[in-house]
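Hey, I was hoping to borrow your eyes for a little while. No rush at all, and the record is pasted right below.
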Amino acid sequence: MTLTISRILHAGYVFECAGARIAFDPVVENPFSRNCHAFPDVRFDHAQLRDVRFDAVFISHFHDDHCSFDSLDLLDRATPMYIYCLFDELFDMVRELGFVHVYPLRIDTPVQVGAMTVTPREAMDADVDSMFHIQAGGLNVLNVVDSWIDPHMLPALARFAPWDMVLWPFQTMREIEVLSPSRAAPAPPRLPEEWIDQLTALKPRYVVPSSCQFVQEPWSWYNHAFFPIAYRQFEEEVGAALPDARIVRMNPSVSFVLDRDGLTAAPPLAWVVPVGEQDVDYRYQGHAAPPRTADIARHFAPLTAAQQTRVMDYCASGLLDKYRGMELPEESFFEKPRVWRLSVFDHAGEGTHFHYRIEGDAIEPIDGAPDALSWTTEVPGARLYAALELGEALTSMYMRMNDAVFDAQTEADLRDAELVDDPLIRCLFNDVFGAYQAAQLRRIKQGS
């Protein structure tokens, strides 16, 4: 018995065996997550995809680059949907989209689809995501998605060694470091040591560098700042550590037939259409100086008067209400009295500055400019509006923190501070679930 494995995009794959066809994390949009443009480039023939029938769809977690309603909207509503998520709201939304067979996945509980068995395996952040163990015809494939393997789980996975194939998330993404580039430590020059240790324990015959490199707008400095690990580096380091394994690159649409004897090329997915050169590699330039937030903001279209009012009202009142209603993280930088400046830049690069005094769960606006600051946050107004109303993710907001020099005590305190402790990040994203999918669902229903 053979297993055909095809790449869609990012962690998206199609598995086919003995007449059964299943999809994992099928995102069929470019750009995806609003502003992530596939790299290498690809487009999708949605008309063809609408005629494809899947025996099941498996979604590893709720992040918008894995669970997108614009993509699910293209699928037959009778398709069984198996989703790993601890939040009931997502299942309710998928049913509201029209799917009638929607099931929660449980760790280590197998799901049988024809000749294939899919078993969710525990990921490092079990509150968010899962991995997938696919078994068919005596073959074992581990789809690590874009998770990490927790050390305590490795012995259980190693019992299946040698794995026939491992789909490995080969990139470390610097989505936090770009928020405060002047303070970020340089990227390590080599792969994380635990990757090599874990792959060695799994003893795979084939390793696919999975997860997707993406780029943003052509002018974006992020296009050389996010991904320090290249395909070439991954292949060299893993190949040297695992000489018996074969590293296999699978660009979007590429298909292989896997069996006990080896791996052979198969016809590509017809509804995934590569655009231009495919064997491209990301050019990381961690030393490049980022542009000012004011200059970044000039690239975005002006907000309407109503949209501008929404942003300003939020900064003046909505943000304060939200902050006061949240619980401060333990050992927060803001446990002590701090002065925070939030700067919102319009399409002309002009900034409106808001100042707040924060202590613990308390926040109050400050009139005028204070003598000293403890924390600064900058954001284009267009991206702040998108986060408020359209489900924009932190990855593409172009927020910037603490590009300033503070007093000596504040600088000492900042060395132990977490960037995600930023008040704007917390107010926009803490205790908020499914904003991206909810915005998609509203739009889809309005258009139906």
User: Anything to note?
Assistant: The first strand starts at residue 3 and ends at 7. The longest helix spans residues 305-324.
